[in-house]
Structure formats: structure tokens, C-alpha cells
Amino acid sequence: MAANPLLELTKVGQSVWYDLMRRALLKSGELAKLIKEDGLRGLTSNPTIFEKAIGGSNDYTEALNELASKGASVDEIYQNLVVADIGNAADVFRGVFTATEGIDGFCSLEVSPNLAFETQKTIEEAKKLFAALNRPNVMIKIPATPQGIPAIEECIAAGLNINVTLIFARDVYQQVAEAYIKGLERRAAAGQPVNNIGSVASFFVSRIDTAAERELTAKLASAKNDAERQRLNSLFGKVAIANAKLAYQSYKHIFHGDRFAKLRALGARPQRQLWASTGTKNPKYSDVLYVEQLIGPETINTMPPATFTAFRDHGKVALTLEKDVEDAAKTLSALEEAGISLKKITDELTKEGVESFANSFTRLLEVIEARRDEAMHCILQRHTGHLGKYEAAFKDGLKKLDSDSAVSRIWKKDAALWKQEPEHQKIIKNALGWLTVVELVLEHANDLTAFANEIKQAGYKHVVVLGMGGSSLCPEVLRRTFGKVEGYPELLVLDSTVPAAIRDLEKKIDVAKTLFIVASKSGTTTEPQMFHHYFYDRVKEKLGDRAGQNFIAITDPGTKLAEEAARDKFRRVFLNPADIGGRYSALSYFGMVPFALMGGSVVELLNRAHHAMHACSDVVPAAENPGARLGAEIGTLALAGRDKLTLVAAPPLSSVGLWIEQLIAESTGKEGKGIVPIAGEALAAPSAYGDDRIFVYVYSDKRQDAEVETKLKALENAGHPVLRARLHDPLDLGEEFFLWEFATAVAGKFLGIDPFDQPNVQESKDNTKRLIGEFAKNGKLPEQQTVFKSEVSVLADPPATFVAKSGGSLADVLAAQLAQVKPHDYVALTAYIEENAAHEALIQQIRIAIRDRWKVATTTGYGPRFLHSTGQLHKGGPNSGVFLQFTAHPSGDISIPGESFGFGVLKDAQALGDYQSLAQRKRRAVRLELGGNVEAGLRAVLAAVQKVAAGQTSAA
Predict the structure, then answer these.
(1) Number of H helices, E strands in the chain
(2) Count of the separate structural domains present in the chain
(3) Which residues touch 515 (CB under 8 Å, ≥6 apart)?
(4) Using the 8-state DSSP alphabet, how is residue 389 labeled?
(5) Element (H, E) at 768
(6) Residue 32 CB coordination number (10 Å)
(7) pTM of the prediction?
């Protein structure tokens, strides 16, 4: 068996501590397991950690309710919950403390960050907490502010164990070490023991790179030549490590010098340096960068769970802390020479750190107060399910998840949970970044807010997302849900190649006052590429060489789009972590940058998501884990034949079904399996449905619909499973995004598929490129055979078998097509036309007529958007779909700069490629060409469908 890198760290003198505390770690036995198997030797906490743990989990329900029922105040509840957790954790670590003779085994609890600038109150609070915990292996955390440093000395002199936090600068570190030594010297002078005092200096790492790189990026924008750019680029990812390495040299000088030798002779221990904030924030860097580069004796690395797991999986252990020390000094000199002050950065980070913890502490008290007032109002309790006769299968599914350690394996990114094949495991291992991306984006939330204010101040009237599928659907949902925010640009989304849709967008905007977001994970997706070229040309007509200032990009590192953005001098490029698939990217930059620019409350939405992340963590049993429960519900029901997931959402959340639809369909529709999500289908009486449905109702406390509830009750009484998700307000979409992502991963395990690949989406892209190639060669696209012609033409290639049976009317043709519908099928209406109110109303009438007559699920989708979502299910899922493809050719194409084809030709190629994929798999598909008047064509189809439903055709 390969050596555990975490255990190897201990052998070279570095201790591993855990940067997380929550009650489930204790209750589940996970903390003891980490100590036993991974050599964990300590634990740190802070107000942010406790705010997420108490606010986002069910761990504290019983204790909080009991305290609230006794009339405890908010402060009393806080003290009880937090002190109890740290005390119990310290008891678990007591064996480590004893075995290491008091060197390790510590657990840390922070004084209120609201006291960070008050020396005496900090001292009093620290003494109070230390006495309340009454354990030798507890440390009290005090921030290294100017007012905190004298408090550190006083507390050390009083015999407290102290963890000094929020150290960013080497000169501040030296002051901290001085305070520790002076406190020990005072004890020694008073004849008190110094051999029982523990202290660490928490030196923060990655945040320095985040701040430095923000300034380096700004410098790069104004760099005068390649040499200057090369010098600036060489500093990326180097500043924080250089700073830490030089701080370690200070540590050696101080604690291996003559002055401390006198205290060491009395049994005093050095104040070890603890590397904090070691999670990687820049997706271009290794996820274990700040562990591997800072390994040395007499140090500690306190790792967040994701970094802990990553290092255990692929960390490399070598004594790196004292390598290239001279280069470290040169790096910091080069930073100063570039005009960037490290002192200014570290001063600001100290201030921001205190403010961040203070905000978290305030939020924590608000959470406790809210939970106290409502006697615990938890995510789990707001997500309920009425499963009827399927309840037993669901509970068995939960047990199976626990017996397979499924939740824990998801967080450990264990690809074998889903697939054994190497090709699948490679995909899966590079597709689980969504699990922790909330934390990464929260680190950059202030930057997003500042950038949004910059755009607002610049006078932009609109922000337009140019994307497709996963890169555009979350912004579309946020746009529809929150509307225009006063004072901010209006957010619009273009994810259609239909010329009429592009013209409609252009009518709404002034391109000179519009910021365009080119969004593409791969950087090569055809539609965003073409949108980029078209609108860049349009803006350039108005702004000339300054056109790039009206564009930003969101993409993975190293993509073609990133290169083109640099070439076209885009205002900004946001590099998303590469290990996140498009449909799982809602809480990444793809969703949050547009939300920030429209004036959305990014921090609050992400905080809600963070609560959900904690509620779904690996230490929460499946039965108490809302994401695992939801995944088990839809997974077990699908296996029982309830594979039509019908989404019902109340205003203003009505559009959330669009996002869930693409997530579920693209993730589960493969290998002949799949869950068919039904979004936007009006709710009806039980008699309208077959026995293959599950209903999910998403609604807000403020907008409950009595009529919908009545219908859902009737469905429950008729034996249909009904799930409910009750949100406090629309910002709880942050919770829903994470819960559905997690649930989809869990459902994929139930179905036995890889929920992270999308083979048939790529196939559709390849078909489009092939057909565009044929157009470039022949001047036209291949033609399908017309098998019926009237006001609406019917095309099929090869000719559909039903045509010979049909009569002479459109209704007869549709009767023959719909005669193929069987129980448990679904009918998909795929429309390569402009999405507008008139077209949508007619399509909805067509789908309802089909549902009510044949009692089957119906889906709708606008092309090419659905090719990047439900299109995967159509081709890779079960052969249970019957397809009506709508196309139209209103006059007037729109040319694309640098291309031999226009958007109309691109749309036609996408529709034809989609149809060919369906035909190749012998899917039951037919194409309806609506002609030049799209609305008239749809009315003709509606009339024909209604006639078929009424049995008024020769085929009836």
C-alpha cells in the first residue's frame, strides 16, 4: 500500500491540523478516524467555520432547541454550543497531547473578533474562555492586531495557551514572537513554570497571493513591453511562499538563538509557526501548492478539508521550506521594484481578516437568534418528501449510501463510486471542483463586488451573457428571478443562433454601452465564439480600438478564448477552475460574475450555498443529508419506473426548472438510462398523468400558491410522489444550486452511470461542424426529403415509416407520428425558432393537448440551447422519446465576420445535425418546417394536434 503523505509529513517534523470544526465530526467518529488513520494532530476553528456549521447543518438542532426552550440568550447559546464543541474535540485529541508530551493535540477557539482592537476586553474574554474549557490542550486565538499583541503577552504571562491568528507580515510575526517570549520571561521571573505553555503563530499564506495577483494583473494591463510583462508574470504564485519562507528564517533566528535558549533550559517550547489559509485559491495552481512548498521541521499546516483530502491523495513530501531562500528574498524585492507594496497588502489583509471574522461572528449570532426564534428552521426540514409506497425503497437506498460510504467518497473525489473504467475515472476526477468552488468564489467576492461597481460607474446600461447551456442557464434563471436591480445594468442572455433572436437583442441595447460576457468552459464552443466575433465587430464600429473594454471572458485556464481575449484586449478575464463541468458551474464564476454585475447579492447567495455545502458534508449521515436524501429520492424512484421528474416552481422562482432540467438531463441521460426532467408543463389533475411521474415543488415562504398546493395534495392522494423545497426567499437559490448538484451526483450512483460526461453533446457539436464544412464546400446544406407539404411542411431523412399510412392533411401526418406514443414515453417539442411570448404560448398549448390526450410527459426546448442539456438525454438516454422538431426560415440571415456562413445557416446546421443524431439512433422523430410566418405555422400545428386529440383524422 502506498504511503500516506499526511503521515509522511509528521516524520519530517511538520504537524497536520484540521481547519474545520463541526459537531458531526465528533458524533460520526470521523475526527477519531482522521487521528488514527491520517495522523491528524490538532484542530483550528474560527467564527466563519462555526457560522457555516451551525447555520448550514442539522448538527445542532437538538442542543439549540433545548437551550432555547430554557430561555437561554443568544450569547449563552453561542457559548454553550461552541465551548462544548471545542471541549469535546480537545478530549478526542487528549491522547495526541499526551503522546507528544504537550507539543500537539491542541484545539483552538477564537475570542470575539469584535474585540480585536480592544486589548483589555480581549484579555478578559480569553481568560473567560480558557477557564470555561478547563483543559490543558486548548488554545485561545487572538488576532495579531496592534491591540492584540499586548493581550498576547498578558495571556501568556497568565498561563494561557495562545494561537495568534491573522499574521500576514514578517515584522508583525516578530512582534508576536516577542510578545510570547516576554510573557514567558515574566512567568519565569515570577517563579512560575514555563514548560506547560503552548503557543502557535498562524501565518496566513494563500490570501497574500490573491491580493498580490490582483495588483499584478492591474500592472500587466499597463505594461509597456514584453520584458516588463515577463517580470510581472514571473511573480504569480510566488509571493506568499516567499513571504512564508523568510518568516521561517525569522523563526529559526528567534527560537534557536541565545535569548530563547535560557527559556528552553527551563522547559519552554518554541512558538511554532502554523501555516494557515493553505487552500489554493487560483485554479491555475496545484491544489496542494501551499502544503508542498512549506514543509519543514517545527511547523504546522492547518488544512481545510479539500486540501487535506487532496494532499492525502497526491501530495509529495520533501523538505522544501528552506529551499531557494535567496530566491524568496529576490521575489519580494522584485515585487517592490514593480511598485507593489507588500506592507500595504499585509496591512489591508489584516484589516480585512478581522472584518471578515467579525462579519461571520455577527452572522453566526443572527443565525442562532433566528434558529432560537423559530426553534430550528433547517435546510433539511424545509425539504420534504411524500413518497407513499416508495418510502421503504428510499430508506433502503439511504442505508446503501451509508454502507457504501457514498457521501464520504464523493467528498474524497473517489471516481470508483461511479465507474471502474479508467477513461471514466479520468473524467470524474476532473469534474468535482463544484464541491468546494463556493469557498473559492467567496474568497474573491469583494473583487466581484468592486468590479460590478466599476462597471456600474462606467455607465454601462446592459450586460449580455454570450453563452450556451451550462454557461448561460444559471444567469438566465438569476435574471428572471431577481429582475433589474436599481442603479445597475440590466442583465440579458443570448443563447440562440436564430437570427430573429439576435436582432431582438440588438434592438434592446446600445452596443457602445453594453458589457458582453463571452462565457465558454472549453473556449471553443461554436455559439459563444460566433457571438464574440459578431458583437466585437459591432462594438468596434462604434469604439474602434477600445472595443475590448466592452468585453470580459469567463473560461478555463489556457483556452483559445483566453488567448483571443488577450488579443482583443478584453477588459477582464475570469479563469474558472478547470475541474468543473458546465452544468455544475452555477456557483462558480459562470454564474456569479453575471449576478454580481446585475447588482445581485453575491455574498449572501454564496453564503446560503455554503450552508448547503456544510449540510451535505461527509460527516453527515445520508438520512440527515439534504443533498443525499434528494439524490436517493429521485434515484430510487427512477429505478422504480418514476423517471419523469416534473418540476413545479412558483414565482419568482418559476425559471429554476430550466436550470434543474439541464443538470438532470445531461447528467443522467446516457447508456440507455436517464431521468427525464419536465420543466414548464402546467400542473393538472391526477387523471392527466401516467404512473411514471415524480413531482417537485420549489417555492418561497413569501409566495405560496393555494391552488398549486390543492393540486399537489390530489396527486399525493392518487399515489404520486411529491417533493417540496421551501425557500425563505429567492436568495436561497444558492442552497438549491448546491443541493441539486449534489443530488444529481448521488442519483448517478443509483443509476450506475457517470454523471459527469456528456458524449452526445460533443456528438452534436461535431455534427454541426461537419455540416458547416459541407456548406463551405457546396454552398448549401444537405437537404432532407419533404414527405408532406402544406402551410407546414413535414421533412424526414430517411423518410419516416409512418408516412405511408397517413392521409392528405397535416393532422393525418401528426396522427401517424403520435400513434407511436406508448405509455411511459415522453413527447419532446424541440424548437429552432425565436423564443418569444407568442411562440411560447402556442408551444405550451400543443404540449398540453398532447399530454392530456396520451397521458405522457412532454418537454419543450429551444435550439440550440437544449443541445447542450436535454439533447444528451434525447440521444443517450432511453428510447422513450417521440420528437417533433420545429424549424423555420423567416427572411434575412445575419452574417458572421470572418465566416462563410451566417447565424441562420449555423442554426439550420444545428437543427439538421440534431435530427441526424436522432435518426441514426432510430428515435421517433419528424421535422415540421413552419415556413416564413412562424406564428402562423405554430397555429396550424396546434389546430392539427387538437384535431388528432379529438379523434377527427383518418388515422384515428
Answers:
(1) 39, 24
(2) 4
(3) 455, 460, 462, 463, 464, 489, 550, 551, 552, 571, 597
(4) G
(5) helix 759-778
(6) 15
(7) 0.80
Within this chain, do residues 729 and 827 fall inside the same structural domain, yes or no?
A: no
Is 574 in the same domain as 507? Answer: yes
Alpha-carbon gap, residue 445 to 338, rounded angstroms? 26
Helix residue ranges, H only, 430-516: 437-443, 445-457, 473-482, 499-508
Residues 216 and 338: beta-carbon distance below 8 Å: yes
875-894 exposure pattern, b = at least 16 Cβ within 10 A, e = fewer = bbbbebbbbbbbbbbbeebb
Q: Residue 274 has which C-alpha cell?
A: 502554523
pLDDT digits (tens, 9 = 90+) for 863-891: 888 887 788 899 999 999 999 999 998 77
* Selection from 785, 812, 815 nearest residue 800 by Cα: 785
Predicted confidence (pLDDT) per residue in 737-792, tens digit: 999 999 999 999 999 999 999 888 777 778 888 999 898 889 899 888 888 888 89
> Looking at the domain assignment, is residue 529 inside a domain?
yes
- Considering 27, 36, 70, 141, which one is annotated as catalytic? 141
What amino acid occupies position 376?
A: M
Contact 633, 394 (CB under 8 A): yes
Distances (CA, A) of 296 to 15, 125, 245, 318, 337: 10, 33, 10, 8, 29
- Quote the CA–CA distance of 227 and 506 in Å, as a whole number: 41
Q: Are 23 and 59 in contact (CB under 8 A)?
A: yes
Q: What CATH number did the domain enclosing 828 receive? A: 3.40.50.10490
CB 686 within 8 A of CB 715: yes
Q: Which of 609, 644, 670 is the last residue of a domain?
A: 609
| Share above pLDDT 70 across residues of the chain, in percent, rounded to a whole number | 97
Q: Which residues on neighbouring strands pair with residue 926, listed in sequence order?
A: 884
- Least Cα distance to 54 among 29, 87, 79, 17 occurs for 79
Pick from 812, 776, 619: nearest CA to 31: 619
Q: Which residues pair with 678 in a beta bridge?
A: 646
User: Is 141 one of the catalytic residues?
Assistant: yes
Distance CA 579, CA 740 (A): 18
- Give the SS3 label for residue 804: helix
**C-alpha span between 279 and 413 (Å, rounded):** 16
Total number of residues shown for the chain: 956
Q: Is residue 880 assigned to a domain?
A: yes
**10 with 145, same domain?**
yes
Query: For residue 956, what pLDDT is reported?
Result: 45
**Quick one: cell of 739?**
443541493
Residue type, 397: G
Residue 50's pLDDT is what?
83
Widest CA span in the chain? 108
Question: What gap in Å lies between CA 468 and CA 483, rounded to an integer?
Answer: 20
Range of the domain at 501: 435-609
- The parts of the chain modelled with pLDDT lower than 70 are 1-2, 370-378, 797-807, 954-956
Residue 699: which of 734, 742, 648, 662 has the closest Cα? Answer: 648
Give me the sheet containing 490-494, strands edge to edge.
490-494, 462-466, 514-519, 551-555, 572-575
The answer to whether the CB of 537 falls within 8 A of the CB of 568 is no
Residue 166 included in any domain: yes
Q: In what order do the strands lie in the sheet with 785-788?
A: 785-788, 793-796, 924-929, 881-887, 826-832, 857-862
Tell me the C-alpha distance between 368 and 50, whole Å.
11
Which residues fall within 8 angstroms of residue 731, CB to CB, at 6 or more apart? 601, 604, 605, 608
Quote the pLDDT of residue 373: 55
Distance (Å, whole) CA 158 – CA 908? 79
Q: Are the C-beta atoms of 943 and 791 separated by less than 8 Å?
A: no
The grid cell for 55 is: 447555520
Select from 491, 485, 490 the least CA-distant residue to 599.
485
Burial of 182 (0-12, 13-18, 19+ CB in 10 A): middle
Rg of the chain over CA atoms, in angstroms? 30
